[in-house]
Each structure stands twice: as structure tokens, then as C-alpha cells.
From TrEMBL, chains A, B, C:
Pathway: Lipid metabolism; fatty acid beta-oxidation. This is Enoyl-CoA delta isomerase 1, mitochondrial. CDD domains: crotonase-like (cd06558). Its EC number is 5.3.3.8. The keyword Isomerase applies. It is found in: Mitochondrion matrix.
Length: 277, 277, 277
């Protein structure tokens, strides 16, 4: 809802509050902070639809001068996001794989390269692509529940994290921690994730949103322009690397996902997930 | 003063002790260690004159075979160096900006690339360019007074640290800590700076010089040649990057500092500093 | 000895257990884990013969589909490996220096680039080249005896670690720790090595092999293919750098080792070692 502090006479922008299928977006124009809440049960998996909605929402906020920061979090209990939606990779056409992978890239390019301050309020487990989203923010706060874990666990599923997942990870935790964690496909319980620097802070779950708002206020105290140029200076090399190799990266994904052995293990994995429920 | 341990018959070199306007230099030929004391009150700001004197003094020591190590510290209470002198960036000619920025580059190229062992005895606060000088040494010892802080706080002033400030910072504290600290323009109190690895050691202020001498002795126990080649191997990539982009970096600075908006905010900042006194 | 769990009817491969002069190799085909034990007293120095045997043994295991992981350790009390054999660098022909240095490169290219899981069970001191071998593994466990130390101490001997020693070191401990440790030629006692991240874990010496087996089992729980591709992604840049500059690196070594001053200091060093005994 619009803040009571909103200056009188300010026009109601188109994106003060908009909700699509998968993500609810609320912009508090008085503080300049938007909240993006993932509401795609059961596990906020990153389907083509989810990713498209995410990128469009983020672009809208980016172009809205009233918005300076975004907090991303989940409306689904116990899970932040389960990562890429495996059904998008199973038994689909090459055209579909292409479109899907481009949407994954787009999400990351927009989030890692966002000019806004981005804070992840990680209020549940966050494997694989979910972890990437958190890693791509400026700051990560996690609920201190040791049952919640986070990590790039692709290797556990017999697949390899793309190079730009790895680059993002190395920029956060350094080469050695990334090498070990990626090879083992580790999912780190919150306390361990904090020790490794994968998340910046742990707080009790009920304090998570309050803390996220406080951190955001601290970052927004800085003038935007200098902060944005500084962020670009830190992240440009890694962003440029995907931009330069984007089509090649799509081809790699297609050639990988088209293998019969991979299709088989993805199908088995989906069966297992269904039985678990 | 020459040490009583100086071997008899050793010629008195030309640079045993020389003092210019801004920096006092004393070389103890018996130990091979020079002390450079910043004495440019009120805050040892890095004016064109200060920087020129620093580079010339360092070059003299570098070329003096009796000198193997340098300790840099401040003769002004509570401040190591306040960083670049803002008056050099305000209302001056393009020729002046060019000369000034070249002097900033020169200081860093000589200090970060010095073949001597360099130890910073940080006996006061050290923002921005002052922090860069400390980061460019081989080892940093700071007085454990939590009122003293250190950091690259450019973003706080609405400006962006040059890429080679950033490269030097990343080499010391790693990518993640640098990204966060630079975006927030953080000034870290001594204990936090130590936790982040920005300084190597904290000691009570009265033990600072003693400790600096002990650290220097430890580093000088190594043969110079192998140590110098090792240092070059670690630092060359980052030094070469500025050398390759030096003129471009000057142009960037001029175009930035010539903006009316920047001139205005620098004038306001100077007014504020004057009122503070 | 072959494990009692070995499936009946499995052909006895050529490399279940083979012992050459310098290194004893045992492969437990039931677990897929080979043990390489350095047994070249007094100090497991890396002579041409040792290095050649190491590379050939590793290649055999790499090509044996029954082998998925290797634990390297020492059969000599108190020493893991003392590093490069100085007698190979003293008073020999250019042809010999070339052959020797190529064997050092070969050892590292094979070990750092191995598709198998590699665990170092560091059961003694491990300076210079011995430290490089440990750094090149996927995981390092060290006996918690503070009398055992590890590090790239080349600078202490007046020589410079090659750039690929440095790259491997930086990938493990980060730029700052590497810069300081390499310049000082530090040999870190086990507890300090653990604090710096140079080794991943310390255990009482009598538990070392048990722990190494447990760690290996954890790493082998992952599917090989994804783990191998992930490892390649993390290490390829550094491996490629030596491959691209291999001949240049050999020339550098020859030109260095051919200097009369270096020959002299190596001879003095060997004299000192002889007297110590």
C-alpha cells in the first residue's frame, strides 16, 4: 500500500502495486523501496513464466524513477526458490529450450546488473537457481533456521553450474570456497552459509523483513549515481563475459539437455520429487 | 640520526635525513630503514605539493642502496592522511587537473610498485587517498583506537574510486568485501578494519613504531632480490593496468571534475569542512 | 591388498598394487580409491626419478576406470615431501635442467588437472614443491602436530616460486595471504596453515588416514562427470596459462639456475643440509 508519508499531489504511478501470476510487487514510493514476493507454490521454481514475469517486473522498477531499491523474498513458507523448473527442460523442443535458457540469462543479467540496491531476504531454502538469485543481490540476509539451506548444488544432480553462476559465486565467497562447494554440490545450512560468506547476515525469521528494510535504508543513504558506477565497476567484467558468450551458452545448454542420459536422469529426479510429496 | 651500530668507515650518504615542507624523511643506514613522516597539518591532505614531494622522496630512497625498507606514518595527531586535497579539484584549470591527477597516479605507481619493503604505521584516521597509501604498502599496522577509521569512502561524497584504487583494495580484502565497502563508502573503525583484513595488525598507539620496526626487521631478513621479484609477480598485473590506461584515466578525472554538479558539491563539502573547524 | 569386498569375477587389473622405487601405489578396486605413498627417504625430495614415477603412476590410475580417487601421503616419518631435489639443479647440463623442469611441470599439470578426486594426507612437513603437491589436490588434511609446517618458502632460499606455483596458491588462500606468505617465504606450522586456509582440516596424526578415506568417500558420492567438468571450469584458466608459456617457463628456469650466484648459493645450501644430518 502507498505509504502515508507519500507527498500530496504525487501522481499515482503505474507500478505502485502490481501483482501478476507468480510474483507480487509492491512499491513504497515514500521510501523508494519495492518488495518482490515470490508466490508460486509449492516451491517458487523458476519456470519460463516466472522468469519472464521477474524480468519484466524488474525492468519496470528499474525504469521507475520513484524506485531506488528492491527487496526480494518469498511468500511461500520454508522455501525461497527451488531453482530452475525441471519440467522446462524435459521432453520439450529446441525452440523451447532456447527460449527458456535465454530467460534464465535475462533474469541474471538484469538482477546482477541492476542499478537499484538489491537485497535478498532469504526466508527459506534456496538451492541452485534460487541461490543464484540471492548471490546476485547486493546483500543477503537469511533466516537463521538451520533447516534452511542454500547453495549451488547442481553437481548433486549430475549437472554443471554454468560459468556465470560460478563467476557470481566466486565474486561472493572466493575461489577456494566456490571450488569445493561447487564440486560437492553442497547445500549449506544457514549457519554454515553465513560462516562461508555466502550470506551476509542471519536473523530470526520474524525479524527478517525489518532487518531487510534497515539494511536497504543504509544503502539508500548513499547517492545513487556514485553507488551505481561503483557497482558497475565491480560487476562489469563478469556481466560482459556472459554477454559476449550468450549464444554459445545457449547452445551448450541445448546440447546438454538434449542428451538422452540427461533426459533420463531428469525424469527420474522428477519422479522422485513427485513421490516425496 | 645515524645509528651507533653504523659500521665505521661507511660514507655518510646524501639522504640520511632530509626534510622538505610536507614530509620528513629519516634514513637509518645501519638498519637500512627509512621513516617517512607526514607533517602537513591539519590533516595531511594529498595536495599536488605533498604528492610531488612524496614521489621524489620515495624515488631518492629507492635509488639509495643503503635503503631497503620504508615506514610511512604521520606526525599529525589523530590523522594518517585525509586523502586527496579537494582544493586541488575546485575551480582550477584543465592543466592543473591534469598535473594533479598525474601526481596521484605517480604516487601510487611508485608506492605499490616499490622494490623496498613498505610498512604503513597507521596512527590515525585514513579515508580515501590516505587509505590507498596504506593499502599500497606490504604490511599495515594500525593503532587500535576505535575512533580511528580507514576506508575508501569516495561513494559517500558522491564520487567513484578510480579502478586502480579498486584493484588495490580487491587484492587486499577480496572481491566481496571490496564490493560492499566501496558501494557503501564505508569508513571502518580500526577493529572492523582488522576483522576485514584491511589492516594486518592492531597495536596500542604507543607501541606502533616499535611494532613497525619489528615487522620491518622480519621482512628485511629475506634476501631482497627474490622478495622483489615475488612482489612484482603479485602486483604487476594491476600496475600494468594503470600504465596502459593512464591518459584515459586522466581524461576521465578531468571530465568528471569539470562537471558543474561536481564542482558544486565539492564547494559545499569544503564549506562544511570549514564550518566544522 | 585387494579388498575382500571386490566383486567376484572382476579381472585383476594391472595396477591394483604396484610399487616402483620411490612411490608405492595401492588401488582398492572396491572403493575405487588408490593410495600413493611417497617412500623416498630421507625426505621424499622431488628428484627427476621421483617426478617421472609420480606422473606415470598418476597417468596409469587416470586411465584405469576402476580408479576414481587418489590419496597422496608419505611413508617417511615427519616429512610429506621436502620439495624439488636441489641436486638436480646443481652442476648439471642444460639438457638435464630442461628435462628436470619439464618433469616438474608435468607433475603439476597432471595433478592439478586430474579428473580423479585427489586428497592430500599431509603427515609431515611440506615445504616448497611438497606444498605445491598438497595445494594441487582437491582437499588437504594435515596432522595437527605444530612441529609440521607447510608453505612456499622459496623466497627464504633466495629463489622465486614460478608463476603457476603462485596461481595455485592464490586459488587456495586468496591474493593477500599469498602475497604476504610468498614474499616472506613463510613455513606455516599446521595450526596457522589451517587458519589461513592453506589446509582444510587438522586431525590427530593417528586419525589421518581414516579421515582421508572418509573425505574421499564424501567426494566420491557425487557423480564423476559433473564433478570433473566443475573442477575443469575452476582450474582451466590457471592450467592453460602454464600450457601456453611452458617453453618460456623452462627457459626462465634454465637461465636462473645457470647463474653462478645461484649455483653458489645452492651449493652452500646443500652443504648446510649435509652438516645438519
Amino acid at each position: 500500500p502507498p505509504s502515508p508519508l507519500q507527498p500530496p499531489g504525487r501522481p499515482l504511478g503505474p507500478c505502485r502495486s502490481f501483482s501478476n501470476n507468480k510474483i507480487q510487487v509492491e512499491l513504497d514510493e515514500s521510501s523508494g523501496v519495492a518488495m518482490m514476493k515470490f508466490k508460486s507454490p509449492p516451491v517458487n521454481s523458476l519456470s519460463l513464466e516466472f522468469l519472464t514475469e521477474f524480468s519484466i517486473s524488474l525492468e519496470k522498477l528499474e525504469n521507475n524513477r520513484a524506485c531506488r531499491g528492491v527487496i526480494i523474498t518469498s511468500a511461500v513458507p520454508k522455501i525461497f526458490s527451488s531453482g530452475l523448473d525441471i519440467t522446462e527442460m524435459c521432453g520439450k523442443s529446441i525452440e523451447h529450450y532456447t527460449e527458456f535458457w535465454r530467460a534464465v540469462q535475462e533474469m541474471w543479467l538484469r538482477l546482477y546488473g541492476s542499478g537499484m540496491v538489491t537485497v535478498a531476504a532469504v526466508n527459506g531454502s534456496s538451492p541452485a537457481g534460487g541461490c543464484l538469485m540471492a548471490l546476485s543481490c547486493d546483500y543477503r540476509i537469511m533466516a537463521e533456521n538451520p533447516k534452511f539451506s542454500i547453495g549451488l548444488n547442481e553437481a548433486q544432480l549430475g549437472i554443471v553450474a554454468p560459468f556465470w553462476f560460478k563467476d557470481t559465486f566466486v565474486n561472493v565467497v572466493g575461489h577456494r570456497t566456490a571450488e569445493r562447494s561447487l564440486q560437492l554440490g553442497s547445500l549449506h545450512p544457514a549457519p554454515e552459509a553465513h560462516r562461508l560468506g555466502l550470506v551476509d547476515e542471519l536473523v530470526p525469521e520474524e525479524k527478517l523483513m525489518e532487518k531487510a528494510a534497515a539494511v536497504m535504508a543504509q544503502w539508500l543513504a548513499l547517492p545513487d549515481h556514485a553507488r551505481q558506477l561503483t557497482k558497475t565497476m565491480m560487476r562489469k567484467a563478469v556481466l560482459d563475459r556472459l554477454v559476449a558468450h550468450r549464444e554459445e551458452d545457449i547452445k551448450n545448454f541445448i546440447s546438454f539437455v538434449s542428451k538422452e542420459s540427461i533426459q533420463k536422469s531428469l525424469r527420474m529426479y522428477m519422479e522422485m520429487l513427485k513421490k516425496r510429496k
